[in-house]
Amino acid sequence: MTVARSAEFVNAVIKAYDVRGVVGEQIDGDFVRDVGASFARLMRGEGAHRVVIGHDMRESSPALAAAFAEGVRAQGLDVVHIGLASTDQLYFASGSLSCPGAMFTASHNPARYNGIKLCRANALPVGQDTGLTEIRAELVAGVPEYAGPRGTESTVDLLPDYARFLHELVPLDKIRPLTVAVDAGNGMGGYTVPAVLGTLSKLTVVPLYFELDGSFPNHEANPLDPKNLVDLQRLVVESGADIGLAFDGDADRCFVVDEKGAPVSPSAVTALVAERELAKEPGATIIHNLITSRAVPQLVAELGGTAVRTRVGHSFIKQEMATTGAVFGGEHSAHYYFRAFWGADSGMLAALHVLAALGERDRSMSELAATYGRFASSGEINSTVADAAGRTAAVLDAFADRAASVDRLDGVTVHLPEDAWFNLRASNTEPLLRLNVEARTSADVDALVTEILSIVRS
C-alpha cells in the first residue's frame, strides 16, 4: 500500500482532464510514482499489458517520467519509453502501439509547473469521468501493492514513424513552394517541426525559438495570448513568409498567422479543415465546441455535412468523436481532432491541412482565411470574480428582455437577434469568468463586451 494523502492535496493536482501542479510543491517523484501505479492498476483491469511514456523538454520531465515508469512496472505492466515527444506524438504512439499512454508536460504553463496527460489504448481519453476519479480516490486511500512480477522497460524512437504517418494523411508533394515561419516557443515544436515540415521539399522553414528550453526564455509557450504571437508576426513580415505557424509548449496546438502578420482565428482553421474533410467524405459529421464561430456549422450545413455542438474540453470532444463517428472536430483554443488520428488532437496535422489548402491555390493566406470569416468575435476575455454564479445571474437579468434564447450546455450561452451571441463560463480551476462574444461587426462585438464586462466586473 502506498502512502495515503489528503483529499484536498490530491484534488488540487488531479484536475478534470489531467494531472498538473507546481514541481516540488505539488508534483514530485513519489507522487507521480503513485499516480503511475494507480493508472497501471486501472489499465491492467481493462486488459492492458504495457504503457507508453513520453515527455517534453522541461527540466523536471525526464525524472518524473522515470518515477511514473517505476510505479507502472511495480504493478506488473511493461513500459515503452519514447523519450522527447510532443503530446500528439504520444497519441500517435498510443494508437500505433495499441496501448495506454502517459505524456509528461504542463503544456503552455510556466516553467515551475509539470503534469501528466493520460490516455487509454488508441489515444482514448482518461478524464474525470473516465478514470481520474478512481485514480484520485486511490491516491487518497493508498494504492494497493501488486504481488505479481514487475514489468519490463524498453525504449523506441517513433519520431520518423510519426512524421511518415502525417505525410501519408496529408501529402504536400504537389503544392506550390511555400515559405513557412514557425515559432516553436522553445517547446516541443522545435523537435517535431524539423522532422515533419523540415523534410518536405516544397517548404522552406524559417525557424524561431527552436531551442528546447523549458524555462521559456523568450516568451510563454501559449499562442492563445496575443502578446506571444508578436515575434512570429514580425518574422513573417520581415522574412516575406507565406504563412506563420505557432505551437504551444507541448506542440499539440497550432496557431496560424497570415502573410501580413495578422492572426487567423481557430474558427477559420476549423472551417477550412472541415471543408477539406467533407470533400473527401461528403455528408460526414464535424464536431465544434460552443465557443467556435457560427460560421463553422453554417459552412458544414452548406456543404452537406452534419455539425454537432459540444462543451469545451478535449474529453467531451473526443467522446463525441467516438459516439458520432465524426471525421473532424475543432475548438476555439486551436485544438483540432481527427478520426484518422484515433480521434485525438494534433496541431501538426492541422498545420499540414492549412499548408495543403494554401499551396493548392494561387491565393494568399489572408485571402484564403477571409473566405471563412463571416462574423466578428472578441476572443476569450477573463475576469477575476469572487462570485461567478452571482455575476452570471446579473448578466442574465440584464439581457432577459433581449435574449432570443439561453442554453446551459457549458456555462450560459445567450443568443441575441441579428446573429449575435455571447457565452459566460466559470473556470474549473481558477476564480475566473470567461467571456466570448460574436456578432456581425466589430462595433457590435465591442458594444456587447463593454456592457457585459461592466456587469461582471462591478
UniProtKB/TrEMBL annotation:
SUPFAM superfamilies: Phosphoglucomutase, C-terminal domain, Phosphoglucomutase, first 3 domains. Its cofactor is Mg(2+). Keywords: Isomerase, Magnesium, Metal-binding, Phosphoprotein. One of its GO terms (molecular function) is intramolecular phosphotransferase activity. Residues 380-453 form the Alpha-D-phosphohexomutase C-terminal domain. GO terms for biological process: carbohydrate metabolic process. Residues 14-137, 161-261, 268-371 form the Alpha-D-phosphohexomutase alpha/beta/alpha domain. Belongs to the phosphohexose mutase family. This is Phosphomannomutase/phosphoglucomutase. It comes from Nocardia panacis.
